[in-house]
Each structure stands twice: as C-alpha cells, then as structure tokens.
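## retry 2 of 3
previous attempt timed out at serialization; input unchanged, resubmitting
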Amino acid sequence: MRKLLLLFNILFVVSTYGQDDPVSFSQAIATHLPKYKEKADKAYRLRNTERAEFLFDSLVNYCLKGSHMDDFKVRDLKDEVVALDEFKKPVYLMTNSSWVVSTDGEISALNKLAEKYHEQVDFVMLFWDKRSTVKDLSKQYHKNIKIFYVDELKNNSPYVVKTMKHSLGLPTSFLLNKDKEIIDIRRKVSHPYGIEFEKSFNLNFDSFSQAISLLLIKDSSQYSTASE
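## retry succeeded, writing output
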C-alpha cells in the first residue's frame, strides 16, 4: 500500500509539473502528425478535399493551437544568423518555397498589409531554396517583410525547421503572439490561377487582414488580462 501511495504521489507531481510547462510545436506535431497524415492521405487519395480540409482544421484547433513555436535560427539574405526569439512583436510567420507559384494579387495584398502593420507585427517569410534564388524572389516583397532562407543542401537548421516544411506543407502561415504561442495556423487562400488581378488581390487581402486582426486581438487581450 505504501509503495502504491508513493507511486501515486510521484505520478501526481510529474503530471502537475507537465501541465505548467508549455508544449512546444515540435512536441505537439510529433504526437499528432502520424494519425493526421494517415487520415489526410486517404482523403486526398479519394479526392475528398472537404474531408482533408476538415482534418487539417481539426489538427490545428485541437492539437497545435496553444503550443509554442520552438526557437530556431536561420540565415537572412546577408547570410547573418537570426533567431526567432529576437522578434519581440507578434509574428506573422510564413513558410514558402521558390517552386510555389504566388499570384500578383497575393504578393501585392501582403505587401500592402506589411506596410500598414509593420509597427505592430513582425512579418517573417522563410523560403526553402538557395540564397541566390531567394534573393531574386525577395525583390517582389515589401522591405518590411523579413526574408530568410533554408538551403537544404547545406541545411544545419534546428529540427523544427524541417518539421515546418515536411509536416504541414508549403505555404503555411503561423500566427505567433509575443511569447511565440501559436494563435492559429493557416494555409494560403485558394482560388483558380488566371483570375483577374483585382479578384485575386481582394481575396488575399481579406484573408491576410483577418489573420492579422486575429493575431492583434489575441495578443492584446492576453497582455491586458495579465496586467490586470
């Protein structure tokens, strides 16, 4: 009986300690990704995109929101190392690659919002490709969008950087508050290629605006509650 009581006390202390520790994104995704991928792969094989989107939203809402993005270091276009924790504002973190085709309306909408909200939000874009390729692509983006790159042929970045690419696909946006807690994870707005610029711009502008508004509201409410 005494041994059982001692074991119960140990388990209680361990579980209590675990509840106080924030769960990292890499921990959360490692726990839940295998089951998600199994179901999502089946949905895509059956061309059931509605089911696949439902599974993605469920993974984000019930498993990944509230986890904290691991600190990681990547290189900017001057080849200087920068850590995620160096950003002190809420972060709009976008993962991308050179082989993902972005529409003119998408880039223009993002640039406009980066110009408007750069004092409140750090806009960070992480590209997978060679530095020279990303340097050329960066010319399309507003100066307030901080561009970084991961060259996988020379990659020695932390594990979480690989995880961001291979777990949820590209492009994906992570909304992080000042403490790097994940407020939401979103995929780019979907619309047919070839639609006129104005429609593309409006669709993307609305999508980006909603995400930024959510990030600012969540961040301000967190810190106003803490100050009380």
